[in-house]
Amino acid sequence: MSFRLLDENDEIDPLLSVVNLVDVFLVLVAGLMMVIAANPLNPFADEDLLIVKNLGHTSMEMILKQGDEVKRFAATGSQGEGDGVRAGVAYRLQDGSIVYVPEASETQAVSLRP
């Protein structure tokens, strides 16, 4: 018993080659999707993620992803309000770094010099 796809008298259907091309393209697309999903540079692959859109503008928006939960925070254009006490002072040094100094009590003195 011999296995033959086409006999010599069978006509070749041109649609068979089109079907084969579609199969090849489906395999290529599936492979590309797997490569993109497994890309370590994909920011959405991380468990926790924070994205800031339009930084510094009135339309600024923050998107926070923690696990499977996604939250969106939009700027309202107004400043925050609330009650509180001064917690400390931040200083920008000549090298550009910022140092936070907690608020000193009345008995403590704070010096920025080492």
Written overview of the protein:
By secondary structure, this protein is an alpha+beta fold. Helices cover 21% and strands 25% of the residues. It has one helix at 14-37, and strands at 48-53, 61-66, 69-74, 88-92, 98-102. It starts with 13 loop residues before the first helix and ends in a 12-residue tail after the last strand. The mean pLDDT is 77.
Name the descriptors.
single chain, 114 residues, alpha+beta, two-stranded antiparallel ribbon
The SSE string, one letter per element, is: HEEEEE
Distance between the termini: 93 Å
Structural class: alpha+beta
Spatial sequence of strands, sheet with the most strands: 1-2-3
Break the fold down into its secondary structure elements and pairings.
Layout: H1 14-37, E1 48-53, E2 61-66, E3 69-74, E4 88-92, E5 98-102
Antiparallel strand pairs: 1-2, 2-3, 4-5
In short:
The protein is an alpha+beta fold and 114 residues long.
